[in-house]
Amino acid sequence: MAFSALFRASSRPAGARRTGLRGAVLVALAFGSGLLISNNPFRPSTTNPDATARGYLRFKEVLSYVDRDYVDSVNTEGLADYATAQMLERLDPHSVYIPAAEREQNDVFLQGDFDGVGLDFNLFCDTMTVVAPLGGGAAAQAGLLPGDQVLRVGGQAVSGARLTNARIAQLLRGARGSTVALEVHRPASARTFALALVRSRVPNPSIDAAYLLDEQTGYIKINRFAATTYDDFRAALADLRRQGLARLVLDLRGNPGGYLDRATRVADELVGGSRKIVAIDGKGDTYDSQVYAKVAGEFEEGPLVVLVDEGSASAAEVLAGALQDHDRALLVGRRTFGKGLVQQPIALSDGGELRLTIARYYTPSGRSIQKPYGSSRAEYRRELAERAAHGDLASADSNRVAGGPRFRTDRGRPVYGGGGIMPDVFVPRDTLACSAYYARLQAHQTPRALALAFYQAHKAELEGLRFAQFNATFRVSDAQLGALAAAAARDGVPADPAALRRCAALLRNQIKAYIAQSAYGAVPYYTVLGAHDAELQQALHALGDGSAQLALASNK
């Protein structure tokens, strides 16, 4: 099957923007996740009441004078928001104030479902383009297809209107049972039509995929720890056990965290006995606690490999750290993000929310994984880029955490605290995926846009193929990659033939995976990606040569 050069202007991505709604939310929440659920037992401090009262009165007085007497009109709400943000800047990078207008979008990250039409979209060339209708949603039931272009939502133009993802999401969401009108253009048939979709409860899964890689090796990818993650994980694991699972690859790459108790409950399914999973230490003893395994888990014995990278943070690090400290799993990948702080969400009277750091967490061996704050939040966020410049993502020998405090796992292996979790098996970051040219293609979403165009043009042919046939026969040729580069050049990415040759295999596989996702779903998408997934291939090698058997020795 050939990859047609269907590079219409309407399908080309615009701007160096990450426009996927789900991706944008995950990135935004990466710095605020790691939440401790409770009933907000906050009371005014009794240790320093006079200073607190003086500070409160000073701020109230200054704001009143500014509002009443300043020469120009001012937005006092905006000033208060700014002052709050500046105050929290003096604390740690994860204590944040979320205004009421942004709270709903942030809350979606932690929910297992939401009210809306069920539409995953990107903005290509300022055109709202359907990536996938979500299962069970009104968009899927109405027959919307990947590649469809949404022109108007509720009478408002959303294509060519320079709207943000957040604004479009607001238009799509609404009360369950309410109706929203969409005007849709289908490029493959050059047809424009109207739809009236009734908003409903739409699943927002935190498990991207759960399937068998072979007859006995399971794979589960958790993208965050949301309200339903533990129940979904347990159900997925039980289903894989029924299919013959005897060993497991758990993928936590890019997982920014979420609810801490969901992560510890997942750990409890994998750790036997009554071993410690995490210790929480706050000011005084108000938030101090220790979490231990207590249930008979679904997979307490059997080879286990956990994939981690620099995007694995917070609750994901709690899980990975517990499994490593108890020698229950072999960790494969690169050093994790390094977030060892716990936030408590506090609802405020204005509808906003304060996410305040109230404790630090420690792995069973006693490690604090929190990396240094630096002098500013901007410096803290640059730390990942500095890792790359220092060589940490390319070589285990360049990692500076090995100079931190030393701890021991149950079997005596050395592990280190002070800046993320170092995996047992280091896999360098793919330099081709980090090249400037490849990064610009991703920023412009060119491979995904062209894969969607191909799917729309060849939908009937793809429906006649089983995935196994597609996977065995489909290939993107050199000439077709040239057409990809030409489409990118028209969108502002200068041609670079040498760079294109270097990342050609990676691009072919990526485009094929996107097409598989549109035509066959999530499992085929990950199946295709796996062929060029260095961390996954290393995990399978570890399982095959018995390296992961270290898990069994400490559980018998």
UniProtKB/TrEMBL annotation:
SUPFAM superfamilies linked: ClpP/crotonase, PDZ domain-like
Does the record carry Lyase as a key word? no
- InterPro entries xrefs: ClpP/crotonase-like_dom_sf (IPR029045), PDZ (IPR001478), PDZ_6 (IPR041489), PDZ_sf (IPR036034), Peptidase_S41A (IPR004447), Tail-specific_protease (IPR005151)
Provide GO CC annotations from the record: outer membrane-bounded periplasmic space
Keywords assigned by UniProt, alphabetized = Hydrolase, Protease, Serine protease
Q: Which family does it belong to?
A: Belongs to the peptidase S41A family.
Instruction: Spell out the protein name for this chain.
Output: Peptidase S41
